[in-house]
Amino acid sequence: MASDSAQNARLASVVGAYDVRGVVGEGLTEEIVEALAAAFVDEVDGAGSSVVVGHDMRDSSPGFAEAFSRGATARGADVISIGLCSTDESYFASGSLGAPAAMFTASHNPARYNGIKFSRAGAEAMSKATGLAAIRDRAAEYLASGIPTASATGSVETRDVLADYATYLRTLVPLDAIRPLTIVVDAGNGMGGLTVPAVLETAAGLPSLPLTIIPLYFELDGTFPNHEANPLEPKNLVDLQKAVVEHGADLGLAFDGDADRCFVVDERGEAVTPSAIAAIVAVREIARARRDDPQADITVLHNLITSRIVQETIEAAGATAVRTKVGHSLIKDEMRRTGAVFGGEHSAHYYFRDFWSADNGMLAAMHVLAEFGAQGAPLSEFASAYSPYFASGEINSTVEDVPAAFARIVEAFAGRAEFDELDGLTVTGHAGLDDDFWWFSVRPSNTEPLLRLNAEASSRAQMEAIRDEVLSLIRA
């Protein structure tokens, strides 16, 4: 057994701002997981109640899930083990069962990593500020002195919720009446290989849809033998893009490792930006809320580095656009606080009020299929209305002195821009230049000495000029 100080150092290294994540056997061990489980049950007052535990396809995940069950039952919780699942499927279980949940996944990270995403009952997010720090501290005590056994230890029940999950998503977004579509889906050997056949095909016993699915890498394999399950990296979309063109498909979908994010490519193999997807889904969710209550005040969230088109689309549809910081736990909290019907991020996280304000990549994909499949144009043409501007993408720079870099930027742009500090520094060209607008955001990383730049403008030349000027200031 490692010393108390070594265990505490490991524990501190794996508990992040929004979840637990670390290298298996180094930062994250079964002993640490067991202590975290016991502390989680204490934090959510789970003794005598149910706690959901699910896991992805990584080699270490089943063992970690069993260790979690040991720690949770020792503190009196009854574990509902849902086994292999996507992260949004675990949110479904937490929401539909009204139980706290722990999902074992490291999302898009390489095979040597694993982690835990915690939820309170009803899929409510948990961050350091809302319980994760307390869990860490209590787990440290349990690692030092042992986990005390509750007067009544809990039980473990196995339950399959995949069919219920698939049925619920189909009630939210019916697809039976759209035109026939051929779709290439790259699951990246992640959990999309389980959920796509259940939701979009007939593996869960549901009726067939007018969809022909061409599968890529549906075999569940936590070693990721084909490519990393991180569609945010362009290199991991290459196989999908090639297959869409070769098969003459209408579009392609790519899921990350735990299948809570979905990326879209058009019939030419060109990526459709997550901002465009957010705008498309926002229109649909606003329209649905308006049908339910024509007089309702409707709110939609977007983080501060989504394209300007997202805010414009939300407002044109008659809803209030609320700009947020970046970060899934923050946005989930803001979804609940504002009662927003939908929220979209640049990273392809999409949040739905009707899904307990949690994120769900499959649900976003279904909205795109429904809207696209209700008309006849190719996706490249259909999506072009939602991508009128030019973006730099996220560019990272190593910066040791962030305040000095910010000071250089403020000095350089003083008098020709407006500044705000909602999340890092956002700089917007003075109002009234709508025919040639620009803005950029510079945010420090939470975990590395990096500054992240995102820039957008109404012309490519303007975007490139702003991008290059800001990079020269950051890297001076």
From TrEMBL:
Keywords: Isomerase, Magnesium, Metal-binding, Phosphoprotein. Its cofactor is Mg(2+). Residues 15-138, 164-269, 278-387 form the Alpha-D-phosphohexomutase alpha/beta/alpha domain. Coiled coil: none annotated. One of its GO terms (biological process) is carbohydrate metabolic process. InterPro entries: A-D-PHexomutase_a/b/a-I, A-D-PHexomutase_a/b/a-I/II/III, A-D-PHexomutase_a/b/a-II, A-D-PHexomutase_a/b/a-III, A-D-PHexomutase_C, A-D-PHexomutase_C_sf, Alpha-D-phosphohexomutase_SF. Residues 394-471 form the Alpha-D-phosphohexomutase C-terminal domain. The keyword Phosphoprotein applies. One of its GO terms (molecular function) is intramolecular phosphotransferase activity. Belongs to the phosphohexose mutase family. This is Phosphomannomutase. It comes from Labedella gwakjiensis.
